[in-house]
Design brief:
There is one protein chain. The chain is of the alpha/beta class and 418 residues long. It has 2 domains: 273 residues, Zn peptidases (Aminopeptidase), CATH 3.40.630; 125 residues, Aminopeptidase i, Domain 2, CATH 2.30.250.10. It starts with a helix and ends with a helix. The mean pLDDT is 96. The structure holds zinc ion (ZN). It is an enzyme of class 3 (hydrolase).
Length: 418
């Protein structure tokens, strides 16, 4: 099997939540010799050193320092660790006509209809009291299918195929147990799963579809799976920085909370990246000069042309799956790409014989955005937004092309080494 595809699928299986994606990335960085730094401690970074630091176990920054310790600027790679989904409410246990159900909030711009009739599991981060009374946290993944949101039979809603408005409060409650079974208690269930836990205090838990990613199509040209937006880019970035040899300084930033606007201390609108840069380059002038010499490659999936809905794209800016990396441009600055950054990127693609395509939204539609503009604004760096073309963005199951994944890994490596 194609190597990046195999690697991506293993990464996806390890990463049902942003916490797990961060842990999966850290595992790979450690194997590549990266050393942990803690924000609560003082740092003494060395020339040629490779480091990583996390915030909340859900955002991650990793960097390789050149002999100038970053003064000559960084080649940045950015992506986001989170994906739209269903987040369990703090007091989620519900008795629905005797059934054990778990109340959820919708996290991000979910294509709600895709969550019906899927075998769901639960994963995330749990905070608990241990037997000595100390507060601890642990990542947890139940792995087994434990819940389902059943559709209503067509006979009971004849107009279902004409479309209906989904009320998430009423209709999107996963069912965990049948009427007559024991009264549900999620915290008690979690406490049993965590060794040494006396009591579970709280959690950040998400439902996720247990069906794993797979190769798809007559010629196995596609990859289907959950959370391809944006774990495809996270995976490629981790591969690239892991393979980076000290020369130019390189930095990867993977932020949580992109799907809900990035406005948290782990999100791209927070100060995580800025604070890391301040530690590495404490003098404002050094930092200013370094940022002026830096380039930020912000990677997030792009809308690939859907053969059944081709009219939703501008014909001349309609990237196809398998057709190469997508350069995203928006006059309203929803993407940071400008002529200069796009030109540099195109010339690198041409050198490496990596195909690229262009995306610009139809003039009568509103454009989405990503971490690029937030980061560029915060640290004052030039860059561009790119990504692999994707079908069904924000569905519980998305599709990308094997070829495009390979291009992304290759391009990111070249980008860091340039
Ligand atoms: Zn995304």
């Amino acid at each position: 099997m194609n190597q990046p595809a195999q690697g991506l699928m293993a990464f996806l299986n390890e990463s049902p939540t942003p916490f797990h994606a961060t842990a999966a990335a850290i595992g790979r960085l450690k194997e590549a010799g990266f050393v942990e730094l803690q924000e609560a401690e003082s740092w003494n970074p060395k020339k040629g050193g490779k480091y990583w630091v996390t915030r909340n176990d859900s955002s991650l920054i990793a960097f390789v320092l050149g002999s100038d310790l970053g003064k000559g600027g960084f080649r940045f790679l950015g992506a986001h660790t989170d994906s739209p989904g269903l987040k369990v409410k703090p007091r989620g246990d519900e008795d629905k006509k005797g059934h054990w159900a778990l109340g959820v909030e919708v996290y991000g711009g979910v294509l709600l209809a895709t969550w019906f009739d899927r075998d769901l599991s639960i994963a995330g981060k749990v905070c608990y009291l241990d037997r000595k009374g100390a507060t601890q946290t642990q990542l947890l993944d139940l792995k087994e299918p434990v819940g389902i949101i059943p559709n209503l039979a067509i006979h009971l809603r004849r107009e279902a195929n004409d479309g209906w408005k989904i009320n998430p409060q009423k209709e999107l409650t996963p069912v965990l147990g049948l009427a007559g079974a024991d009264k549900g208690d999620l915290k008690a269930l979690l406490a049993k799963k965590i060794k040494g836990a006396k009591e579970v205090l709280d959690f950040d838990l998400f439902f996720y579809p247990v069906e794993g990613p797979r190769l798809m199509g007559i010629n196995k040209e596609m990859i289907t799976g959950a959370r391809l937006d944006n774990l495809v880019s996270c995976f490629a970035a981790v591969q690239a920085i892991s393979a980076h040899r000290p020369g130019p300084s390189a930095m990867m930033v993977l932020n949580d909370h992109e799907e809900v606007g990035s406005g948290s201390f782990t999100g791209a609108a927070g100060n995580f990246l800025e604070s890391v840069l301040e530690r590495l380059l404490p003098q404002p002038e050094d930092r200013g000069r370094a940022m002026a010499a830096s380039h930020f490659l912000s990677a997030d999936n792009a809308h690939g042309l859907h053969p059944n809905y081709a009219e939703m794209h501008d014909e001349r800016h309609a990237p196809v799956l398998g057709g190469g990396l997508v350069i995203k441009t928006n006059a309203g600055q929803s993407y940071i790409t400008d002529a200069e950054s796009s030109g540099r990127f195109q010339s690198l693609c041409k050198d490496k014989k990596i195909p690229f395509q262009h995306f610009a939204i139809r003039a009568d539609l509103r454009c989405g955005s990503t971490i690029g503009p937030l980061t560029a604004r915060r640290i004052g760096v030039r860059g561009l937004d790119i990504g692999v073309p994707n079908w069904a963005m924000h569905s519980a199951r998305e599709t990308v092309a094997v070829k495009d994944l390979g291009y992304l890994v290759e391009l990111m490596q070249a980008w860091l080494g340039e």
